[in-house]
Amino acid sequence: QVQLVESGGGLVQPGGSLRLSCAVSGFTFSNYAMSWYRQAPGKERELVATITGVSGSTNYAESVNGRFTISRDNAKNTVYLQMNSLKPEDTAVYYCNAGGFFKGSLPWGQGTQVTVSS
Hints:
Blueprint: E1 3-7, E2 10-12, E3 18-25, E4 34-39, E5 46-51, E6 58-60, E7 68-73, E8 78-83, E9 92-98, E10 112-116
Parallel strand pairs: 2-10
Antiparallel strand pairs: 1-3, 3-8, 4-5, 4-9, 5-6, 7-8, 9-10
């Protein structure tokens, strides 16, 4: 049974940082690209960042490029999102899921709320 459990969200002031984690179980994690997505109130879910399975190549949405860093630890079946220089427009529920060819194909977890506000 595939399970995705996101954690690490919270309330942070503009300019602050957070590190999100996503623990993955139930499938061969290291073979798959993984992505972080986010959904703000009243908006559609959007892709934020992707990391490939073996090489660890990354790419980012233009809105977060240079501020966010995606990484993974295949030994721990965990994917991370380091978020720096946070802005109010980064406020959303953040989710992890498969990326690349299998984009969004896994059962969605509960997500983790990130709120950027002074």
